[in-house]
Design goal:
Blueprint: H1 2-21, H2 40-43, E1 48-51, E2 59-64, E3 70-75, H3 79-94, E4 99-107, E5 110-117, E6 121-127, E7 130-136, H4 139-147, H5 161-192, H6 205-213, E8 222-226, E9 232-236, H7 241-249, E10 254-263, E11 268-277, E12 297-299, H8 331-344, E13 348-351
Parallel strand pairs: 11-13
Antiparallel strand pairs: 1-2, 2-3, 3-7, 4-5, 5-6, 6-7, 8-9, 9-10, 10-11, 11-12
Helix pairs in contact: 1-5
Amino acid sequence: MRLWLSSLVSLWLLILLGACSVSPPPELVDRSPLSSDAVIGDVLPPGRSSTVNFPGATEGRAVESERGGHLSAFKFPSPEAAKAGLRDLARTLQQRQDIQSRSTVAIGRVQYVRYSGKEFAGLAWAGGNWVFVAEAATENAVADMIRTSRVGGLSAEVDDISARIFPWLLLGAAILIMALTQALIMLVLRFLAVPADPGVPPLSRDDLVAKLQALDRPELPYRISQGPRGELVVEWKYADARWWGIMAKAGLRNAYRLRLGLDERRKKVNAIDEFTEIEWDAQGLTAPSIRFRFRFFRGVTLARYERGVAYGFRGPLGQAGGKVLDYTFDMMELKGPVIELVTASGWNFQPVIWPCEL
């Protein structure tokens, strides 16, 4: 259920993103397209005016505001010529070295380019027979310049078939992505599941918990404890003085723990892998600082491997000399015995991706 919910949320976000991408800029929402008969001198706001030329345009004029921004209007023979002019303008903007970000939308009636640099913002759009360009120090200044003018908005008609079919294409792509993603996740989870040993009568939940807790032995570098929500937590003995020196010397940099939720009705153990970084002191003489709640990867992990060998020091059980201990601190060194015990007890081992499934 949670997987379906996340997929639906992703679908909604994708559709919303697509809808936003074909929406007119806020500065132009309430503006009607300008008539082709409009006089270019009456369109622009008061200010220092000058004639400008643009390829394909029959007329062009720019006004510079008192604050240094400018608003330009170009009149073309037809709406198709205006769209072509906006495309040419977009290519011209690509060559400007001072522009740091640029986004272009050209679907049906929605034809505009938004751009910005370190000290300016700009908006260029096509509507009807017209192309307009507004550039000022900030986006708010651009909006003010447009508001005090009579420039037109975007065309009212949807004259491009792509604009009509785009939402359906987006919906179809989103559904396909959702289906493929879910199928892949289910396939991976099914592949990683480990079934119970055949013919073994399943133990009760209490007996299985007792057997798992019995894995916590002094000679092993991991411990099994109960989590805050009743789940079992299997992790390396980071806080055990007999082991943290070995881990530090082995160069362990990523903390790992395995969280287990026992579903007695289905005789299934749901498992989540969690990782975070270890913060050792300079000499590795004190217990590391580990905070799984702040920075971690949670979910299904296909592989995780860390190699470390400790030489020439005394181990936790008194061994000394030569190659004292060789612990890989591989996650399967911790996880393997748990899986073997679970399946040998007549239970299935199932990786999951959501904590609520524990």
